[in-house]
Structures are given as C-alpha cells and as structure tokens.
Amino acid sequence: MTDILDIRGISKSFGALKASDDISLTLKSGEIHALIGPNGAGKSTLINQIAGGLKPDSGSVHFSGQDITSLAAPARARLGLGRTFQISQLAPEMTVLQNAVFGALGADGRVSRFWRPVMKDRSLLEVARSALERVGLNHRAGERVSEISHGERRQLEVAVALTQKPKAFLMDEPMAGLGHGGSERLTGFLRELKQEAPILLVEHDMDAVFALADRVSVLVYGRIIATGTADEIRTNPLVREAYLGDEEEHA
Amino acid sequence: MIRETHLNALIWLLLLIIPLAAWQMGEIYTITLATKICVLALAGVGLNIALGLGGMISLGHAAFFGIGGYAMGILANHAQSYIPIMEHPFLIEGTKYMPVIWLLAIVMSGLAALAIGALSLRTNGAYFIMITLAFGQMLYFFAISWPAYGGEDGLAIYVRNEFPGLNTLVPIQFFALCFLILTAVIFLSSRLENSRFGLALQATRQNETRTRTVGLTPYKIRLIAFVISGMICGLAGALSADLNRFVSPVMLSWHTSGEIMIFVILGGTGRLFAPLVGAAIYIMLEHFLGGVSDYWQIFLGLLLLMVVLFAPGGVIGLLTKREAAHD
Lengths: 251, 327
Description:
The complex is a heterodimer. Chain A has helices spanning about 45-50, 75-80, 95-110, 120-135, 150-165, 180-195, 205-210, 230-235, 235-250; strands spanning about 5-15, 15-30, 30-35, 60-65, 65, 80-85, 170, 200, 215-220, 225-230. Chain A is an alpha/beta fold. Chain A folds into two domains: about 1-80 and about 165-250, Rossmann fold (3-Layer(aba) Sandwich), CATH 3.40.50.300; about 90-165, no CATH class. In chain A, the strands form two sheets. Chain A has a six-stranded mixed sheet, with helices on both faces. In chain A, helix 3 (about 95-110) packs across helix 4 and helix 3 runs parallel beside helix 5. Chain A is globular. The relative contact order of chain A is 0.17. Chain B has one domain: ABC transporter involved in vitamin B12 uptake, BtuC (Orthogonal Bundle). Chain B has 14 helices and two strands. Chain B has a two-stranded antiparallel ribbon with strand order 1-2. Residues about 320-325 of chain B have low confidence and may be disordered. The interface of A and B includes residues 73, 111, 113 and 119 of A.
C-alpha cells in the first residue's frame, strides 16, 4: 500500500498552546485511518492544516507524492483532497441538487461561463445525481438545504465531496448527531468508500471507530501518543489512561 | 398573490406603456421621468450583481457610475470644442458617437472596478464597506479638484450625443434606446444568475468555506462579479450623463452610491427586477413629494425603514410573498 497522504512533523502553536506538536502520520490507499482524542486535543487544528485552512509553523504535508504545504485550500481540493466538516458547510439557500452541482462544478473548474444555465448542464448534473444517489439523497434533490434535516446535511456533505472524485477524504466527525440508524448506515457506506479513496476520519463515536478503522491514531495535547490497529489501541495502557478509561467511566 | 415572473413582466410592460401613452398625449416630462428610471435602474442592475448575488456591500459604486459619466463628458466636451484629447504620440479626438462613448465608459469603469475590487476584496465586512467608500470619495475629490473638466462645476454638454438611425433629442427615441439597453442588461444578468458563474457567485455569498472546499477561489469569483457590476454602472453613468447633458462630481459622491443601493434594497436585494422597482419608487417619490416639500427624502427614509424592518424581500418580495404557499 502506498502513502496517499504523508504528514511529516508538523507543529502549530497558538501563543503558549501547542495545538500540534511534531505530528507525523500517513494515510495509505484503501484504508480508514481514524484520529481520536479527547476534546481540545487538536484534531480539528490538524485536519485544518492538512486541508489548507491553516499553515503549520513547521513540518510538511505531502499528498500523492507532492509537497502541498504551501498550497491554499482550493488548490488542495483540486488535487483531490475531499473534505467534510464537523459543522456542515453548505450553501443554505440553494437546493440539495444545486449544492451537489456546485461540487461537480468545482471539480470541473470551468467557472467563467456566464451564458448557459448551469442546472441544464448534463455533465455536471450526471455527476451530481449519481453522488446524491450513492448517499441516498436523490429523493430530496429539490429541497433547499435550510429545509433538510441535520442528518441529511451530513449525507449531502459526503455527496458533495464525492462529486469531487477525491483521491483521499478528510472527514471531521461525519457521524455527529446522526442517531443510531444513520450512524450505522454511514458506517457501511464508508467501509465501501475506502476502496475508492482512503479516509482520514476524526470521530467521537468509538463503536464506529473500532468497527471501521484499519488504523487508529490517538492525539492527546497535540501529540500522537499511539498509532496501531483497533485492537492494539484498545489494549494500549497509555491510551486507556489518557482517553478510553475516561470514556468508560462516563459510559 | 402573484408570481415573481408575472410581476416582472407587468412592471416591464408598465415601463413601456406609460411613456408611450405619455408620448401620445404630449406629456414630455413623463417620458423624461421614465428615461431617468431606466438609467438609474440600469445602475441598480449593476450593483445588484455585486450586492444581491455576491453579497458585496459596496458603498463605492458611484465611482463607476461617475467614471461612465465623465467618459461621456470628456469625449463629448472635446468633440463640441473641436480640441483633440491628445495629439502626441498619436491623435485622439473627442466623439459624439454613443456606441464609442459607451465602449469607453464600460472599459474605463471596468478597469477601475478591477483595481478597486482587487484591493477592497482582500477585506470583508465593515472594512470592505469602508474601503469601497474611501475609493469612491477619492475619485470624487479628484474630480472636484481637476479644473480641466469643470472641477466642482462639472461639464455641460450642449447637444445630446448621437446614435445611428435615431434622433436622440426626441425624448421618446432616447427613452426607447435606454429602455432597450435596460431590457438587454436585465436579460444578460438573468442569464448570469443561472449560469455556472452565477451558481459559484451565489454559493460564495452563502458560504465561502464551501467554495474553497470544492476547489474554487472566492476572491477570483467575487472580483469578476465586481468588475461586471462596475461595467454596468459605468454604462448607466454614460447614459445618465447623456440624459442630463451634464456631468458633475456629484455623480461620484457617496450619496450616489447610497441612492443606487436604496433602489436595490427597496425592490428586494438579489431579485432580478428589484433595481427597476426601486428606481421607479424613488423617482416617483421625488416627483410627487418633491413638489410638496424639499424634505421629501424623509418619506424615502421612512419607506426604506419599513422595507428593511418588515419586508426584507423588498417590495417585490412583499407582493409575491404567497407564491410559495400556492405552489
């Protein structure tokens, strides 16, 4: 398996707070690599640096063999880095289909077209429709995003990411607020999806993480304290102490 | 109530029929008012692309309107005085020929929008409003202190410029010209709204993180929209100058920017015919209440307040409110 994504020693500080402290990790083709850690461990900061929203103070990010550390978020997206957010980032006044078409338009890249109606553009519609179909949202295509449910918005985010035909996915808590059934369905879908493109998954839902992840990295106070298979992580004393033990007490 | 497309068609027809009727009855002044509505609405259509579709709250669009006005003023001024604009290194003479004037107005205001937009769009929110305002005021004070073209007094053009096949001094013919241009530009802006670019522009207004995530750069999209918007305002400025046969720094002042914005907001920000409705309301208020009191703008202010507070969709939004419930 080759490394699609290779993060080498990135650090990021906000004042005295070390949000990322010499983090290295890889994402190999065909795998789901889950990133777990307690609140405030720096998971979102890390994802943001990989996606291009934040610049690391030091270290580098490589994507399919290319150093992308100095590229802005749109350029990284064009290279094939698909992303979904913890809080959905969609165009709320547009319909479900329009959002998906916008994703296809971004992947197509030819945006300076002022004349022909975009919603009659066959090639974009085809990509958008098939992405909606895959996440099971086609029946909601005509609804405005502001009218659909929270869970449907999460599905739509995944669908928009699919229209990009990415080489890797960054997913920040895709299960959050989905409810049990929805979470299970998405788990099944992600397992299927990883064959197309590997997924770096930030997730709080431990059931989902242990059911899905080929590898798990544990982030605590900006440092990765362990990386391994789900079983290795479950039994790792450091991890139990820092994170899982804490969870079990609450459970 | 009424569907927006039907309402738009009705408004468009009224704008056509009323001046034609006035022409039959010899009511020249009504034709002039209708022409004024066309020209101001055109500026509003320009701003609506930046403001309504793109969410860019520009208080500097008077700059483009004024540049269009001065493009006309300068060309026509040289033509009427028979003094070339420059002789070296090559000869450039003035012209009274509208298509050339419009072209220059569009190009110059587009270039200004490119420069102003390129800088302003690096900021957002209140800073964007302030920086566009500052650029507009810079041009305003420049025009005031530029004696070659009238300075504070402005420039008077004695005879309206020419358009092939028309006698532009006949009010109904000049109206027809302005009406056709307005119609064409509204049509173009509706194509733009529904095009690939329009989708990207509106998505960027609603959520620019989304735009970045799909691989597009919000800055570029906004800048293109800002330039298109400025070019339309420039054309409107040239026509407005021709309507009044007069150009002055007032065209460049921030009051003008505010007025254009009021047209858009009164009609309903982002709606295709909003600028036309807004401009018509503005001109009618000015006409009917301006005769009653010099302070007629108090009523305009009250109306604007009502619209902003109780009808965020503007007058068009108010009239078409129940559309969704019927569908």
